[in-house]
Amino acid sequence: MVDLIVGLQWGDEGKGKIVDLVAKNYDIIIRSQGGHNAGHTVVVDGKKYALHLLPSGVLNPNAMNVIGNGVVVYPKQLIKEINNFDKNIKNKLLISDKAHMILDHHIAIDQAREKLRGKNAIGTTGRGIGPAYADKIARVGIRMGELKNIDKLIEKLAHYYEMNKGYFEYLGIDIPSIEKLREELEEYKKALGDMIVDTTKYLWDNFDKNMLLEGAQATLLDIDHGTYPYVTSSNTIASGALTGSGLSPKKLNKVIGIAKAYTTRVGNGPFPTEDIGSDGDKIRKQGAEFGTTTGRPRRCGWFDVVAARYAVELNGCDEVAIMKLDVLDGFDKVKVCIAYEREGKIDYFPSDLDKVKPVYIELEGWDKSANVTKWEDLPNNAKKYIEFLEDKIGSHIKYVS
Ligand code: IMO
Ligand code: MG
Q1: Distances from the Cα of 286 to the Cα of 256, 278, 300, angstroms
Q2: Catalytic site residues?
Q3: How much is the pTM?
Q4: Which residue, by CA, sits nearest to atom 16 of ligand 1?
Q5: Rounded to a whole number, what is the distance in angstroms from the first to the last CA of the chain?
């Protein structure tokens, strides 16, 4: 059995918190796409962990953690995260030999290209995600399994740098010295080599265990179905998690979608319900909406039912968690976008969001939902808000955080 946790908005929904909450029910936690652009904050016993590449199950003493074939791995970051733990977690982690590697030049390319785009920048996390996936698709990428034979890998990389000489020059990026590169690759191999296996086979062989696919980024950042080109470079939706792990669609049991009680976005691109006034500021302040990965202030706004319904359908959500409800505490009225307007009403998330305007309805606000642990104890208007969302998005809201 495999369940899946997926973000329904533009990321940072609180996926890590829910993964950590349910992780004890699972034996194997799997990351299947993205890389260290993700930032999952989990607090355990008062200690705060910011995970970027490690699956959130590393905080569960009994779970195995898998970095699947669909992930792009920056070994330097992974080693750093592993070393951040007081105890040894290496025996609880496997890395797919098919996962592609991010090297320093991918990061340099990402940042140089963003600079050249100027005001049209995507606002990437600058972690080399796009360039690494681009190499994968162009069939010139490096897979983690290639660390087994560093001589061969060096030969391949030398050819790669030769082929891309003009491009590197144009971007103002230095080609790394092969000797330095060899040193680095040896270091990666030493630190990670024992964990690199065929994780697809591992998952198949262990399918009698309970598995959880932990999504990174989110539906509206999906390379195909998101707000292209202001997206990340992987398929973030449920079907991408299957590609990124080697599990067949028939194996998927339950899909849990995660959404915040409002909406945030970090980076550029359309965001119909963004509030650039005092309401947005208040949400940012109350919700501490600053990026885990880059520290950037997040753009904030109201819940968007059109986008959420689209995300529920794309992922086939069985249940939804609504996060950070208490951030909306203290608003007189809360707004919800129930349709868009662009030469008439649209109630479907269109392929481009050019010039769409949100159509809002206002619901009564509430004073205090923070620290409530029972549904019955929520303020009436908070309950009504959740029930309204449930009715509109087409999926059962099983958790409220
Ligand atoms: P988690 O898993 C929020 C956004 C970036 C940018 C776009 C492309 O914490 O929810 P990339 O570096 O991926 O090429 O950037 O995607 N982005 C995220 N936004 N949460 C994330 O991850 C994100 N990962 C990427 O801000 O707009
Ligand atoms: Mg994040």
Answers
A1: 26, 12, 11
A2: 12, 40
A3: 0.96
A4: 232
A5: 26
